[in-house]
Specification:
- By secondary structure, the protein is an alpha+beta fold.
- It has one domain.
- About 55% of the residues lie in helices and about 35% in strands.
- Helix 1 packs antiparallel against helix 2.
- It is rod-shaped.
- The two termini are about 15 Å apart.
Length: about 70
């Protein structure tokens, strides 16, 4: 459980620093032999930094409860 808690804390820190990302899809619009026209579309993925804080707190709770169980 301690390892899972550390991983969750790390993910929470990353989610607080990077609050989102974009990915691009390419769609073929016209293909007339040598003439090709593609359309690129950006798709933003955003989340609140509060999600990162919740993950950090959850990871800390996992680590603390794991120590209490094994003590």
């Amino acid at each position: 459980m301690k390892t899972i808690g550390i991983v969750i804390i790390a993910i929470g820190i990353i989610m607080m620093v990077y609050t989102g990302f974009n990915y691009v899809t390419t769609k073929n619009v016209i293909d007339l032999g040598a003439v090709k026209i593609n359309k690129e579309t950006n798709h933003p993925v955003q989340w609140s930094p509060i999600v990162g804080v919740v993950l950090i707190v959850g990871g800390i709770v996992l680590i603390v409860t794991d120590k209490k169980v094994h003590a």
